[in-house]
Structure formats: structure tokens, C-alpha cells
Write a structure and sequence with these properties.
The protein has about 140 residues and is α+β, with helices and mostly antiparallel strands. The protein folds into two domains: about 5-40, Single Sheet (N-terminal domain of TfIIb); about 50-140, K homology (KH) domain (GMP Synthetase, Chain A, domain 3), CATH 3.30.300.20. Helix content is about 30%, strand content about 30%. The chain has three helices and six strands; from the N terminus they run βββαββααβ. A three-stranded antiparallel sheet has the order 1-2-3, with no helix packed on it. The chain has a three-stranded mixed sheet with strand order 4-5-6, with helices on one face. The longest helix is centred in the middle third of the chain and has 24 residues, at about 50-75. The chain starts with 13 loop residues before the first strand and ends with a strand.
Length: about 140
């Protein structure tokens, strides 16, 4: 279900200069990075890139969703990690991305880990935002 503006409790604000080959900064100054295309896309690779920033945000958000689900299920996810791999490539519309979410949850068995990851994927805001738009693969 979509939220309305009155439901918003926090809004992140970031401004980009010169697109994929420039700079991105948040209005509060907590993030201020040079962005450059990676060498694989013909860039210098000197700075970060939008795919890395998306991977960082998605993995952090998914880890938070995993913790919420674990609390509801009474599962121990302490020591767990979530890695997001974001790939970019050409498609019929120009370019698109794919994501692989990999979770390591050392304190539960593989079946429980898979169930927790699937449930986290249902509640993670990034997963909800991308559902039906990009391919997201889940692994444990």
C-alpha cells in the first residue's frame, strides 16, 4: 500500500551535480561524494557510483527488515550480514539494473534463514519499491 505525504516521518534530500560524473551531496552535509562511472562503463572509477550507493542503501534497509522479521519470529539474527550486489547493463529500454541480496545468518539453520530472508523481502521498503520493476535474487 502506498503512503501519503502526511505519513512521511523523514525525507532524505540529495542533490547531484553533473550526473554520473560529478558529485552527490545531502542537504545536511552527512554525505558528500564524488561520483564517476566505473572503468567497466568507460569511466575513471575514481569515485563511487550510483549502483554502489543503491547497494549500500538496499543492504542496510534489508538488514533492518530482517531484524524486524526476526523479532516477530523470535529468531536470533545477531552477527548476520546482508550484501547487495547491484548490476547495471543494457536492456531493450536502454539500461537496467538487477540485484542479488545475500544474507548470512549464522545463528539459525538454512531453512529458517531462507524463511526470514523471504519475509524480510516482503517488508523491506526497497524491496517493495523495486518489486515488479527489476530482478531481485535472494540467497542465504
Amino acid at each position: 500500500m502506498a503512503i501519503t505525504q502526511s505519513d512521511v516521518v523523514y525525507t532524505a534530500v540529495a542533490t547531484a551535480e553533473n550526473g554520473r560524473d560529478g558529485r552527490v551531496a545531502t542537504d545536511d552535509g552527512k554525505l558528500d561524494v564524488v561520483v564517476n562511472p566505473p572503468k567497466e562503463q568507460g569511466g575513471s572509477g575514481a569515485g563511487t557510483n550510483p549502483e554502489q550507493l543503491f547497494a549500500a542503501g538496499y543492504s542496510a534497509c534489508f538488514q533492518g527488515a530482517l531484524a524486524v522479521v526476526a523479532r516477530q519470529e523470535g529468531a536470533d539474527v545477531s552477527g548476520s550480514t546482508v550484501t547487495a550486489k547491484v548490476g547495471i547493463g543494457k536492456n531493450d529500454d536502454g539500461f537496467g539494473i538487477i540485484v542479488d541480496i545475500s544474507a548470512s545468518i549464522p545463528n539459525v539453520d538454512t531453512t529458517t534463514a531462507r524463511e526470514l530472508v523471504e519475509k524480510a523481502h516482503q517488508v523491506c521498503p526497497y524491496s517493495k519499491a523495486t518489486r515488479g520493476n527489476i530482478t531481485v535474487t535472494l540467497t542465504v
